[in-house]
Amino acid sequence: MLSKAPPLRLQARVRSTNAFNQSQSASVESAASFDAGEDPVTARSGGFASATIAPHRAWILCTLLFFATALSFLDRQVLSVLAPELMREFGLSNTVYSRVVFAFVLSYTVMFALGGRLMDALGTRLGLALSVGVWSLASAAHALARGPWLLGISRFFLGVGEGPCFPAATKGAVEWMPPRQRALAVGFANGGSAFGAVLAPPLTVWWAGLFGWRGAFAATAALGLLWLAAWQLAFRGLPPAASSPPAHRGASFKSLLARPEVRRFMLARFFFDPVFYFYMFWIPQYLSRE
Q1: Residues 159-176: pLDDT tens digits?
Q2: Could you give all domains of the chain from N- to C-terminal order, each with its CATH number?
Q3: In this structure, which long-range contacts are made by residues 262-267, counting pairs with CB atoms below 8 Å and at least 24 apart in sequence?
């Protein structure tokens, strides 16, 4: 004989018990992920790890990103402010000076383009630390220059270090902030460039007056080393996921180029940047002569 089906009330109880057990299992799994230093939501979704960082710690990291972009613009402008003095001391013509400047622009352009891929490979914490470390050493090398060749080599490696800075700042701000605050964080982190550009002329003149032009380059290198120390301290006590968030697949470069707003932005920067850097590298000389 066929057995009778269990009463409907009993079936409902069984379903309720199964649902409760599944809920408990998910809770235990989430707790285990949390104890391992991993955000449960991030662990399951493969998304960004912003939930692993308390809001105040995330803003501390974004503030350090702000100072990184500020240092980037400060360091690159020291040569421009000191150019009249350096050209007199080394007997540089405008042509030779332009080649020194070009060494920076060339390496900076290449590394800016490759910086995002480099940050994806190394992670923002390590990648940006290497970036600031390289350009700080390059800034210090300027102080040892005895002629245009070492000056040009120093500028080249300054561009190598500074190129990945802005991709790293954008990546870090997106990784560590919740979605509703990401636009603000990205703007804040990248806004350090304007702060550094404004501070560069008076600080450079002040340092050069106190320590000479070589001391001005050494001072910017020292600021970079201080930033590196603060950067390492800022990650103390954070889970590993905060330093190396889970990789996730973004849009392809081809799909980005298919978007008209991306093409318009690239075209605008193509025409704007040459003018901007021309003024950055040549205006101090013009003003000193006039």
Answers
A1: 999 999 999 999 999 999
A2: 55-244 (1.20.1250.20)
A3: none
